[in-house]
Design brief:
This protein has 1031 residues and is α/β, with parallel strands linked by helices. The protein is 21% helix and 21% strand. The chain is built from 25 helices and 54 strands. The strands form 10 sheets. It has a 14-stranded parallel sheet, with no helix packed on it. Strand 7, helix 11 and strand 8 form a beta-alpha-beta unit. The longest helix is centred in the N-terminal third of the chain and has 22 residues. It is elongated. It starts with 18 loop residues before the first helix and ends in a 6-residue tail after the last strand. The N terminus is likely disordered. It holds the Pfam family F-box. InterPro entries: F-box_dom, FBL15-like, Leu-rich_rpt_Cys-con_subtyp, LRR_dom_sf, LRR_FXL15/At3g58940/PEG3-like. This is F-box domain-containing protein.
Length: 1031
C-alpha cells in the first residue's frame, strides 16, 4: 500500500482488473473539482479527454445531497469494467497501468509556471536527470510492501518531469520551451508533476539549485531518509477499520490508494445498498446489482423510476432479505415477482401507490415475516403469507384487507379510516395467533368486534383502541391483556372498570382524556403503570396493586379522593389537584411525594406521612402552596427533606424527625409556634416567620441558626451543642434568661448577633462567659450603659460592634484603652455614638492593636489631628513636621514606639471634622484605607502614610486643601469636592502608584485639564470626570 502524503505519492506493485476504471473515476472527480474551483485544466479546452460516463442530475438536490450523490457516482464509475474504462481514458499511466492522478498533474502545471525565467539548458538537464532517476526509484518502490511517508522539508527538492509514455516505455521526453518568452512550456502530451525525490545509499537523485548533490559525498544517509516513516497496515486490520464506515466514507476511502480501493469494495461492506432519496438511474443500479449480487438489503425509498429499479433488484439479487420502497408507484408485476425472492424476510413500503390504485393487489410469499405498508394508496389488498408475523397497514387508504396469515402476531391498522367495522373484524379474527392489535383512530370499531376478537385471539396481549368513540368494553373480556390504551374514548365510563378488572394480567393502563370517567377502582395484581390526564369529571381513584410503580394523574380538576396500595411505588406526583382533600397511601417503598398546589389538603395529610401512616420509607415530602394546612405535625424516622413553602395558613409546626436534614419555610408568615425536637438540621432560617413567639429546637448537628426579624419571640429553648453562629437581630422580646439558657446549652458559639435586642441586659451579657470561643459580638442599637460585663466575659473577643449605643458614657471605654481589656480585639465599631472628642482621642492613642475602626456619624468628633502639640500628643516624640524634611526611611526609623496596627479607618458623615492631619509620627504604617466621605465641613487634609492605598473624600463639599505623600496610594475619590485642579495636581504628583482618580461633579476641575492630571501622575489608568468645560 502507498499513502499520498502532501505532494508525495507512490504506486502499488500490482493492479486489479478494474484499476483503470477506478482511476478514471478518481480522475473525473478531480477534474470536476477543478472545474468548480477554477483550476488549470488538462488538454486543449481545459478538460481531459475522457469518455462520457453516466452522470446524475444534481439540479434537484441540495448541496449536501449533491456531494453524497457525486460520491456514489464515483463509486459506480470505480466498479465499471477496468478494460473498457482503460480504453476510454486517454491519460498518462505508470508502468503497471495506473493512471497518474490529475491533482498531481495539475500541481505540475503550477510548477511549470514557476520555471518561467530559467534558462532552457538548465531546465532541460534537470528534467532529463530527474525523470530518469525518479522512474528508477519509482519502479523499485512499486514492489515494496511497506508504505513510505515522507515529511515535506524545505531542504527537499520535488521537481520531476514525466512523459505520458513513461508508464509504458520507461523513457522520458524533454520539455519544449519558448525561448522568445524566456519560459518553459510543456509539450502537448507531456505531464509535469511534483514529486519528492527518493534517496537511497546506492544512487543520488536529489539536486539543488546548481544540479548538485545534497551537500556531501553521498556516502551517508540523505535528509529524506532521515525523515522517512514506515507504517504497516495489513489487509485484515484495514478491513476491520473500514467496517465502521458508511457508504459515503467508503467512497472517500477508495480514493486513497489501490489497497484501500480494493478493501473498500469488499462485498461485506456492500450487503446493504442504500439509495434512499438518491437520483440513481436504472443503468447505474443494474451495474451495482451486477457488482454485488450477494447484497441482502436494498433501500430505494424516494428514488426515481421506483418500479423499474425494484424490478431489477428482485430479478438480480437472489439473496435479498430486506427491501425498503416508497414515494412512487409500484405496478402489479412487482408483487407477482416477489415470489421469486425466496429469501425475502422483510418488505417495507411507505407512501406509495400500489398498482393503479383501483385494483386488488395480491401479496403472496411463503417466507415473508415482516410486511409494512404505511400510508399506501390501494383499493383492496389480499395478503397470503403463511410465515408472516408482523403486518402494518397504518394510515393506508384501503377499503378492504383480506388476510391469510395464520402465524401473524402483530397487526397495526391505525388510522385506516376507510376500513369498516366488518372489515376490521374479518381481518383480525383470521389471525388466531394475534398478540398485539393497534386499531387507534378507527372510528367505526364497536364492542361487538372487540368481543369476537377476544374470543378468537386468545393470546392477545396488547390492545390500542384510542380515539374509538364507540368502544366501552362493558361486555368485553380480555383475560391475557397486558397493555391497554384508551385515549380519548368517549364511551369509557366507570362501568367499563369491571371489564378492565377482568384483565388480571394487565400491566399498563392509559385512560387519558376520557371525559365521562368519574371513578376508577381497580384491584390488579400486576398493574405497573396507570395514566389519568385531563379527565374532567374524574372524582375518585382507588388502586390496589403490589407491582404499581408509576402513576400519572394531572389536570383532573374534580378529583377529591385518592387511595393507593402498592409495594413498588417509589415516587408520587399529584400536581395542581386543587380539590384533592383525602389521600390514603399504603406504599411500603414510597420515597418521594410531591403535592404542590393541592390547596384543599387538610391537616389529616400529616398522619399519612408520619410513622404508621403507610409510607415507612418516605424521604422527601413537598407540600408547597398547600394553603389548607394550619397545624402541621410530622413524626417520621425516615423523612430527610420537607418543604412547606407558601403555606401561609400554618400557625403551628411540630417536627419529630430525628433524620430531617432540610426544611424550607419561606412564606410561612403566620407561624406562631415551632418545635424541632429532635432533628438533624445543620442550618435553619426562621427569619421569614415574623409572628414566631415560641421556639423549641433540639438539633445535635446544627451549626447555624438565624432568627433575624422574629420580633415577638419571647420564649426560646435552643439545645444545639455544635452551634457556632446565632443571629437574633431585631428579637426585641428576647430576655436575659433565654440568652443565658442558650449560652449554657450551646458552648461552641463563635458569632452572636444581638442587634436591636433592647431587652438584653447585664445578666444576659455576664452569661456569655459560657462561650469561650466567642469572637464576634454585635450589640448595636441596644440600651447598654455599661460594657463591664462584656470586658469580663468575652476575653477572646475580636469583633465588637456598638453602633448607635447612645446610652454609653464617656467612661464606658476606659477599661479598653486604660485597663487593657479585650486584648484580642481587632475590629471596633462605634458609629453614631455619643463619645466625646477626648474619649475618641484616648482610644486612638492607646488601642494600637485595633485593625478596623469605624467612627461614622460621630457628631462629637472634631479635628482628626495626630500631629498636634496638646497633652496627648506630647506622649509622641517631637519631630519636625515640615513636609520638606519628610523621609520615610529616616522618620519611621526614628520612632521608638511600636507602630499602630490600624488598617481601616471609617469616619463617614462626621459633620464637625474640619481638618485631618496624619503625619509620619502618628505611626500609622499599616493604614491602607481611609474613608472620610460625607464630611461636609472638612476643609483640609494632610496625610503622609506609606501604605495607604484607598482614600475616599467624596462629598466633602468644603475641601480646598489636599496634601498627600502616599507613595502607595492607588485610588483617590474626590467626587463633589470644591477643590481646584491645581491642588489636585499637586496632591497626586507625590502618588507614584495612583491608578484611579474620581473627580466627578467637582466644579473647579474641568475635563480639559485631564491631560495635566495625567501628566502630573503618569501611573493613572482611570480618571472619572464630568463633562464640564471651563467658562
Amino acid at each position: 500500500m502507498r499513502i499520498w502524503c502532501c505532494l508525495c505519492f507512490t504506486f502499488d506493485d500490482e493492479e486489479g482488473p478494474d484499476s483503470k476504471g477506478y482511476c478514471e473515476a478518481m480522475r473525473d472527480e478531480t477534474l470536476e473539482n477543478d472545474a468548480h474551483s477554477g483550476g488549470v485544466g488538462i488538454g486543449a479546452n481545459g478538460e481531459d479527454p475522457v469518455e462520457a460516463a453516466p452522470t446524475f442530475d444534481y439540479g434537484e438536490l441540495d448541496i449536501h445531497d449533491r456531494d453524497d450523490t457525486r460520491l456514489f457516482e464515483e463509486m459506480i464509475r470505480a466498479v465499471e469494467d477496468g478494460e473498457a474504462a482503460g480504453e476510454a481514458v486517454n491519460a498518462p499511466v505508470s508502468d503497471d497501468g495506473v493512471v497518474v492522478p490529475v491533482a498531481l498533474r495539475r500541481s505540475s502545471l503550477r510548477f511549470a509556471q514557476r520555471l518561467r525565467g530559467e534558462s532552457s539548458g538548465s531546465v532541460t538537464t534537470v528534467a532529463t536527470d530527474v525523470s530518469e532517476n525518479a522512474m528508477e526509484d519509482c519502479n523499485r518502490d512499486w514492489y515494496s510492501k511497506r508504505a513510505k511517508v515522507y515529511s515535506v522539508s524545505h531542504d527537499c527538492h520535488y521537481d520531476t518531469l514525466m512523459s505520458p509514455d513513461a508508464g509504458h516505455s520507461g523513457s522520458s521526453e524533454p520539455m519544449n520551451f519558448d525561448f522568445t518568452q524566456n519560459r518553459g512550456v510543456p509539450s502537448e502530451d507531456a505531464i509535469v508533476y511534483h514529486n519528492l525525490i527518493w534517496n537511497s545509499s546506492n544512487d543520488e537523485t536529489s539536486f539543488g539549485s546548481n544540479s548538485g548533490g545534497d551537500g556531501g559525498d553521498g556516502s551517508g544517509p540523505s535528509k529524506s531518509d532521515d525523515l522517512e516513516v514506515r507504517m504497516d497496515l495489513s489487509d485484515d486490520l484495514l478491513h476491520m477499520v473500514l467496517s465502521f464506515l458508511g457508504h459515503v466514507d467508503l467512497c472517500r476511502a477508495a480514493m486513497v490508494c489501490k489497497q484501500w480501493r480494493t478493501a473498500s469494495a469488499h462485498e461485506d461492506f456492500w450487503r446493504y445498498l442504500n439509495f434512499e432519496n438518491r437520483n440513481v438511474t436504472v443503468e447505474q443500479f443494474e451495474d451495482m446489482c451486477h457488482r454485488y449480487p450477494n447484497a441482502v438489503e436494498v433501500n430505494l425509498h424516494g428514488a426515481p423510476s421506483l418500479h423499474y429499479l425494484v424490478m431489477k433488484a428482485v430479478s438480480s439479487l437472489r439473496n435479498l432479505e430486506t427491501l425498503t420502497l416508497g414515494r412512487g408507484q409500484l405496478g402489479d408485476p412487482f408483487f407477482h415477482a416477489l415470489t421469486d425472492c425466496n429469501l425475502l424476510r422483510s418488505l417495507n413500503v411507505n407512501d406509495a401507490t400500489l398498482g393503479n390504485g383501483m385494483q386488488e393487489i395480491p401479496i403472496n410469499h411463503d417466507r415473508l415475516q415482516n410486511l409494512q405498508l404505511v400510508k399506501c394508496r390501494v383499493l383492496r389488498i389480499s395478503i397470503r403469507c403463511p410465515e408472516l408475523q408482523t403486518l402494518s397497514l397504518k394510515r393506508s387508504n384501503m377499503g378492504q384487507a383480506v388476510l391469510n396469515c395464520p402465524l401473524l402476531r402483530v397487526l397495526d391498522i391505525a388510522s385506516c379510516h376507510k376500513l369498516s367495522d366488518a372489515a376490521i373484524r374479518s381481518a383480525a379474527i383470521s389471525c388466531p395467533q394475534l398478540e398485539s392489535l393497534d386499531m387507534s383512530n378507527c372510528s367505526c370499531v364497536s364492542d361487538e368486534t372487540l368481543r369476537e376478537i377476544a374470543q378468537t385471539c386468545a393470546n392477545l396481549h396488547i390492545l390500542d383502541a384510542s380515539y374509538c368513540p364507540n368502544v366501552s368494553l362493558e361486555s368485553v373480556r380480555l383475560p391475557l391483556l397486558t397493555e391497554l390504551r384508551l385515549h380519548s374514548c368517549e364511551g369509557i365510563t366507570s362501568a367499563s372498570m369491571a371489564a378492565i378488572s377482568y384483565s388480571y394480567m394487565l400491566e399498563v393502563l392509559e385512560l387519558n382524556n376520557c371525559n365521562l370517567l368519574t371513578t376508577v377502582s381497580l384491584d390488579l395484581p400486576r398493574l405497573k403503570s396507570i395514566s389519568l390526564v385531563h379527565c374532567r369529571k374524574f372524582v375518585d381513584l382507588n388502586l390496589r396493586s403490589a407491582t404499581l410503580s408509576s402513576i400519572m394523574v394531572s389536570n383532573c380538576p374534580s378529583l377529591h379522593r385518592i387511595s393507593i396500595t402498592s409495594n413498588s411505588l417509589k415516587k408520587l406526583a399529584l400536581l395542581r389537584q386543587e380539590n384533592l382533600t383525602t389521600l390514603a397511601l399504603q406504599c411500603q417503598c414510597l420515597q418521594e411525594v410531591d403535592l404542590t398546589d393541592c390547596e384543599s389538603l387538610t391537616n389529616s395529610i400529616c398522619e399519612v406521612f408520619s410513622d404508621g401512616g403507610g409510607c415507612p420509607m418516605l424521604r422527601s415530602l413537598i407540600l408547597d402552596n398547600c394553603e389548607g394546612l394550619t397545624t402541621v405535625r410530622f413524626c417520621s424516622t425516615s423523612l430527610l427533606s420537607l418543604s412547606l413553602v407558601g403555606c401561609r395558613a400554618i400557625t403551628s409546626l411540630d417536627l419529630i424527625c430525628p433524620y430531617l436534614e432540610k426544611v424550607c419555610l419561606d412564606g410561612c408568615d403566620h407561624l406562631e409556634r415551632a418545635s424541632f425536637f429532635p432533628v438533624a438540621l445543620r442550618s435553619l432560617n426562621l427569619g421569614i416567620c415574623p409572628k414566631l413567639s415560641i421556639l423549641k429546637i433540639e438539633a445535635p448537628s446544627m451549626v447555624s441558626l438565624e432568627l433575624k426579624g422574629c420580633g415577638v419571640l419571647c420564649e426560646a429553648s435552643i439545645n444545639c451543642p455544635l452551634l457556632t453562629s446565632l443571629d437574633a437581630s431585631f428579637c426585641s422580646q428576647l430576655k436575659d434568661d433565654c440568652l443565658s439558657a442558650t449560652a449554657a446549652s450551646c458552648p461552641l458559639i463563635e458569632s452572636l448577633i444581638l442587634m436591636s435586642c433592647p431587652s438584653v441586659g447585664s445578666d444576659g451579657l455576664y452569661s456569655l462567659h459560657w462561650l469561650p470561643n466567642l469572637t464576634v459580638l454585635d450589640l448595636s442599637y441596644t440600651f447598654l450603659m455599661d460594657l463591664l460585663p462584656v470586658f469580663q466575659s468575652c476575653l477572646q473577643l475580636k469583633v465588637l460592634k456598638l453602633q448607635a449605643c447612645k446610652y454609653l458614657t464617656d467612661d464606658s471605654l476606659e477599661p479598653l484603652y486604660k485597663g487593657g481589656a479585650l486584648p484580642m480585639l481587632q475590629e471596633l465599631d462605634l458609629s453614631y455614638g455619643t463619645l466625646c472628642q477626648s474619649a475618641i482621642e484616648d482610644l486612638l492613642a492607646c488601642c494600637t492593636h485595633l485593625t478596623h475602626l469605624s467612627l461614622n456619624g460621630c457628631v462629637n468628633m472634631h479635628d482628626l489631628n495626630w500631629g498636634g502639640s496638646d497633652g496627648r500628643a506630647s506622649e509622641w516624640p517631637a519631630i519636625n513636621s515640615s513636609r520638606a524634611s519628610f523621609s520615610l526611611e529616616d522618620n519611621y526609623a526614628a520612632i521608638e514606639q511600636p507602630n499602630r496596627l490600624l488598617q481601616n479607618l471609617n469616619c463617614v458623615g462626621c459633620p464637625n471634622i474640619k481638618k485631618v492631619h496624619i503625619p509620619p509620627m502618628a505611626r500609622c504604617s499599616h493604614l491602607s484605607s481611609l474613608n472620610l466621605s460625607l464630611s461636609a465641613n472638612l476643609k483640609e487634609v494632610d496625610i503622609a502614610c506609606f501604605n495607604l492605598g484607598v482614600l475616599n473624600l467624596s462629598n466633602c463639599y468644603s475641601l480646598v486643601i489636599l496634601k498627600l505623600q502616599c507613595p502607595r496610594l492607588t485610588s483617590l475619590f474626590l467626587q463633589s469636592c470644591n477643590i481646584n485642579e491645581e491642588a489636585v495636581e499637586a496632591a497626586i504628583s507625590q502618588c507614584n502608584m495612583l491608578e484611579t482618580l474620581d473627580v466627578r461633579f467637582c466644579p473647579k476641575v474641568f475635563s480639559i485639564s485631564m491631560g495635566r492630571l495625567r501628566g502630573a501622575c503618569p501611573s493613572l489608568k482611570r480618571v472619572f470626570s464630568s463633562l464640564l468645560s471651563s467658562s
